[in-house]
Amino acid sequence: MRQYELVERVRAYDPGADEDRLNRAYVYALKAHGSQTRDNGDPYFSHPVEVAGILTELKLDSASICTALLHDVVEDTEGTLAEIERLFGGEIARLVDGVTKLNRIELQSEHTKAAENFRKLVLAMSEDIRVLLVKLADRLHNMRTLHFIKSDERRRRIARETMDIYAPLAERIGLQRFKDELDDLAFAELNPEARDSIRQRMEFLQERGGYLTERIIDRLNRDLSSEGMEAWVSGRIKTPYSVWRKMQKRNVGFEQLADIMAFRVVVKDIGDCYRALGALHGRYPTVPGRFKDYLSTPKPNGYRSLHTGLIGPEQQRIEVQIRTTEMHEYAEYGVAAHWKYKQGAAAGEAGAPGATEGAYQVEGRKFRWIRELLDILEHASNPEEFLEHTKLEMYQDQVFCFTPKGDLIALPRGATPVDFAYAVHSEVGHTCVGARVNGRMMPLRTALQNGDQVEIVTSKAQQPSADWENFVATGKAKAAIRRWVRQEQRDQFATLGREMLERQFRSDGYELTEKGLTGILKKLKQDTVADLYVAVGQGNLTAREVLVSVFPAAREAKPSKIVPLARARRSKRKDGALPLKGLIPGMAVHFAACCHPLPGDRVVGIVTTGKGVTVHTIDCDTLAQFQDQPERWVDLSWSSEAGEEPFTGRLQVVVSNEPGSLGSLTTVIGRHEANISNLKITNRSLDFFEMLIDLEVEDLKHLTHVIAALRATPAISSVERARS
Ligand code: MN
After folding, report:
1. I want to staple 33 with a disulfide (CB 3.0 to 4.6 A). Which of 45, 391, 415, 619 is the partner?
2. Residues forming a β-bridge with 694
3. Residues 6 or more apart from 256 whose CB is under 8 A from it?
4. How far is the CA of 560 from the centre of ligand 1 (A)?
């Protein structure tokens, strides 16, 4: 098709179309595809032009036609989305992007077995119905030229996919014409013998019928006009595939015209539909069980018509479909027709000639798949249909991702690789350390997108982090993490509690025994000794209360001094201090996130009921809140052996936004043997990044060295310890 032909076709139904933009898109795509050729040796550019041509049959707006022209540019040529946006605007760029993304999933998920899931994925990704329409037209043209592909295997795969995915999609949005043709082209590839024999049989029946069809049409026309109705009667031959399906479903052969042909009566309004039905039922005997009223109860995809079976003129069994012009267009073009009517209405309301383009644009922008669904929903009347639609609507809140093998995992929108990992298996979730999304390592808190391929990296040494709970989106992941953390915390509290009791008992000269504790469980309202340890570890019971319960005589002794907790961080120390090695943040002893104390900082502990002890630096602002509760303060100091385990220091860093500056930041940190455990950009301007960096260091001295080195780095404008 030539450039002017295409533009003429669009102008024929949309006089206000942006002709200039169409011409520019045509020329741009022509140049972009250059000397590329298709499998049949034709210039590649013939493909996008034909796709655009198919869409003019649906009378789609010029943005859709431009999208069709440009739909393979990003995938197959040097052209970029940014360039398309610059040249043709945001709307077209967005549509082209949508089609490109659909093509990518198609390439990626050859192994996907579940066609229904794949259909959902395609639907979910076609946020704008026009993306799906362009995609279906693309597929239709590829199917029309399928026979040029040399590889048998590839041809069959494409045909299979068309039948499993694209034809049902076309049907779902009411695009019956596309559905029929897609199915039949796929059928020709997948089962050529069956199709040939059905075609021969159909030809035979038509020949035998001779002028039967014309005579029946003529007779029905006269029947209706004698009732004073304006009607347009036509006959449509079914596709070999639909005949085949019918034979399969009913397990019967076909020998009559009615089996291969349907007659259509198109009238002006709904009243005439029922009048036409009455007229025909009054003249001809009906075939029982064939009458269906899709007019008062439309099909889920919006199709409306009256269907009936008659022993018609010429004593032939015939199938008749009665509908209005509008319903007829919908029956052929589905949502595409629906959409067009909306444009017409909008332009009509605007009232002025030439308002069409504006109306197209406004309506086009508002037009979304979901809106269309809601529209169809209004027409659906029975519960099954309603469910069908809510199912579709549901996909809007889901993302569909793939395992490296191509299995599909459906997740709620906002789900992260951690959710993905738990969806695969809870063991995978518990041990996940990282994720490759579309081949690139990404943070675990990344929100996954439709079509992402996710590979979870696991390590036996990994344990779930309590922090994950803050960003996972699925209940499954949340519950698994919570269960794990609770158990882990319990273990930590129990260890701490037992150590605290041992200390208390020993310093007062008593012996701690399981037997002794068992005797007082009831009194202290604990079920097991382990529960008792946990209660002490969490600070719900004091060690002294327990001591006095077991040995009432101990009541007389004076209370022991405050335990210097952190001095005993190292388990190697045997001087009666608490061996708290292995406590991790969030557990019985943890380091405050407000000031990130390091060995070398002066520190103090605050006892929090149910949480154990929080360690703050002595100058932390948070401490002011506890000014009037001296009983909660714990005197702490660092063990001289501290330093084997890394501590976390938090820095607030401002880096100039220039190439290489982040690189020099990490280089300096690495050279000083510190490790970045977390990094968060808090502010990003044209000139600067502001970020918070958590560094694993040995102690305060180590951190001070790193800070000094960073301050000496030109790309870094400022470094402070973060105090929040
Ligand atoms: Mn294409």
Report:
1. 45
2. 650, 678
3. 205, 316, 317
4. 81
Q: What value does the mean pLDDT take over residues 425-437?
A: 89
Ligand 1 mean position, distance from CA 9 (Å)? 21
**Of the residues 76, 375, 469, 491, which is catalytic?**
76
Domain locations in the chain? 3-144, 195-333, 646-721
* DSSP classification of residue 688: E
Is 76 marked active-site? yes
User: 468 CA to middle of ligand 1, Å?
Assistant: 42
- Architecture of the domain made up of 195-333: 2-Layer Sandwich (3.30)
Mean pLDDT of the chain: 78
Task: End-to-end CA distance of the chain: give it in Å, rounded.
Answer: 67
**Domain 3-144 class, CATH top level:** mainly alpha
Note the pTM of the prediction, 2 decimals: 0.55
Question: Considering 39, 75, 227, 293, which one is annotated as catalytic?
Answer: 75
Q: Which residues of 531-555 are buried (b: 16+ CB within 10 A; e: fewer)?
A: bbbbbbbbbbbebbebbbbbbeebe
3-class DSSP state for residue 578?
Answer: coil
State residue 251's pLDDT score: 64
From the list 269, 298, 270, 273, the residue with the least C-alpha distance to 376 is 298
The pLDDT value recorded for residue 235 is 87
- Residue 110 Cα to ligand 1 midpoint, Å, equals 17
Fill in the amino acid letter for 650. R
